[in-house]
Specification:
With 147 residues, the protein is mostly helical. It has helices spanning 7-27, 32-49, 52-61, 64-71, 86-96, 102-119, 122-130, 134-139. The protein has a single domain, classed as Uncharacterized conserved protein DUF2267 (Globin-like, Orthogonal Bundle). It is built from 8 helices and no strands.
């Protein structure tokens, strides 16, 4: 990875690549563009389902570069979206990540959730999960200790 010469930029690039490579490992995709698209689509779907304050708390936990695309295109009006079912969440992700089968879409969402669980403090993840519908929380598998 080339150095920008600005430490904070180099650090956020490095952290972002850690996240993307973790998604690539979890999903089996070999393309960082696909991992980025998956991360962005899932983060946007989460963000738009959270109360505004909680969406901002989650954003504060993200590395600077990821935080930038998390907030990209966000408007606070009309939030949170009011859907109540897992299928609605999957449909929201699908809007920004077309072309995957339903099974692959759910596996991709689960992979991003797993990376978020490992990268964000547990308390924040718990608060985010509490605001999501029960069906979406079912996709957010609990990590198995030691794995």
């Amino acid at each position: 990875m080339s150095s920008t010469g600005i430490k904070i930029f180099d650090t956020t690039l490095q952290k972002t690549f850690v996240w993307l490579h973790a998604i690539m490992d979890e999903t089996g995709v070999e393309n960082s563009q696909q991992a980025y698209s998956a991360l962005r689509a899932v983060l946007h779907a989460i963000r738009d389902r959270l109360m505004v304050d909680e969406a901002m708390h989650l954003g504060a936990q993200l590395p600077m570069l990821i935080r930038g695309f998390y907030y990209e295109g966000w408007t606070r009006s009309g939030k949170p979206l009011k859907y109540r079912h897992k299928e609605d969440f999957v449909a929201e992700v699908s809007k920004n990540l077309p072309g995957l089968s339903d099974d692959d879409m759910e596996l991709t969402i689960q992979a991003v959730f797993k990376v978020l669980t490992h990268q964000i403090t547990g308390g924040e993840i718990d608060q985010v999960k509490q605001q999501l519908p029960a069906g979406v929380r079912e996709l957010w598998k609990e990590p198995v200790p030691g794995l």
